[in-house]
Design goal:
The structure is a homodimer. The first copy, chain A, is built from seven helices and 14 strands. By secondary structure, chain A is α/β, with parallel strands linked by helices. Chain A has one domain: Carbon-nitrogen hydrolase (Nitrilase/N-carbamoyl-D-aminoacid amidohydrolase), CATH 3.60.110.10. In chain A, the strands form three sheets. Chain A has a six-stranded mixed sheet with strand order 5-4-3-2-1-14. Chain A has a six-stranded mixed sheet with strand order 6-7-8-9-12-13, covered by helices on one side. Chains A and B meet through α5 and α6 of A and α5 and α6 of B.
Amino acid sequence: MIIKAGFIQTDPVFGSVSQNVDRAAELIASMDAALVVLPELFSTGYQFISKEEVSDLAEEVPSGRTTQRLAALSKERGIFIVAGIAERGNGFVYNSAVLTGPGGFMGVYRKTHLFYEEKLWFSPGDTGFRVWQTPIGAIGIMICFDWFFPESARTLALKGAEIIAHPANLVLPYCPDGMVTRCLENRVFAVTSNRIGTEERGGRDALIFIGRSQIVSPRGEVLCRASAGCEETGAAELDLTRAQDKDLNRFNHLIRDRRPDLYGS
Amino acid sequence: MIIKAGFIQTDPVFGSVSQNVDRAAELIASMDAALVVLPELFSTGYQFISKEEVSDLAEEVPSGRTTQRLAALSKERGIFIVAGIAERGNGFVYNSAVLTGPGGFMGVYRKTHLFYEEKLWFSPGDTGFRVWQTPIGAIGIMICFDWFFPESARTLALKGAEIIAHPANLVLPYCPDGMVTRCLENRVFAVTSNRIGTEERGGRDALIFIGRSQIVSPRGEVLCRASAGCEETGAAELDLTRAQDKDLNRFNHLIRDRRPDLYGS
């Protein structure tokens, strides 16, 4: 099965949730992809400076307005959306990503590996890595810095993911090339949606987001890579049989050749 | 501590063990590195075409002539050598790498993940990934295709490796860039020693080895990368404190931030 998947690379304005969601909706409407991945924390912006601030901007899932809006957009357009938002739940705040589809809200993933000052504002994710079986393939989610730990994409692949949806707010330069390795070693597609722009709030270090959202194939081909500095959309056709085929050659199978008894944990 | 490590990128002649070992010894003698890594199966060549052939060319470890010669070289020059050889032991044949040092033979690693027709000739390694504490740092070994499985380098890092010695006979193009990810995600140095040349024996597919031996730092810098087609040596100074420091920033620690309870195996 061939499906079309894409990203929107946005430049959110910190705290302007309605404006950010409106702009995302406009960009989504300009695309004809069956799956659209949005950046991490696309609706709020990234650089929080107090617990109160993040708590005020976080929303419940799925009842919050952003998830409701994404679910409505998914229904209206008959598409799947993965988007990063600040989630309030069980008295904690998580750096999460929600999946919505033509039937509405489908699920949430809470970021496993928090980066830098995120540890001040968010609780470590407690959902584990999740994969959803959908009519357009098996979609797994990881968020930004999760990529750095090979166990993240590996776990998603072991759970059957064919496409890794990867909302991000990258500031370090390594991820675009690193994701090529992730796709090769797991024979999966990955759609990394990153933001652009700069945030420098409350006297903290300026954060410069690197853009370069991309789509990578199970053979490590960069099918589409955005610029470093422009608001952009990108999409590519993904032949899912390429992610299902784990035979590297007639002797080697990506999963069966693993030897977990010899691996450290 | 700063040590100098290097590779020799050779062009072995299949089956000409004495000639291949002599040439390696000459190249080693031309270097002033404390650690020299040689390619996979550097003494025999790669493309076996029968069980008898591999059994004839395989040697016992450490009593075989190649290991003895490497141990003598290590003693004579006061250096550490990691070299890939065909090993005969317990009635099996392994694709192995031996470590020798100023005190002589130190140990053997048997390749965990066999590639392609290697499965016809070799038994899967039974040593697991090993790390040796030496006066020039903690040296771990993996062989060629092991790189493709992120668990290999991860296991070595979890066991304390500061330098990954990586004998290889690469034919696919992905490893040189992939090893950048391996070094970043584990904050280790890696010395990949690959061969050059072509083998096409017994009517089998021609194998073209890609060269591009390299040394990569814990920050993913390619300190040294050889050509695709020349016999070459390369070396770089490795500041081991850079591999010992697993703090990515003041909030993130490469090992302590792992969440094995959420990882699939």
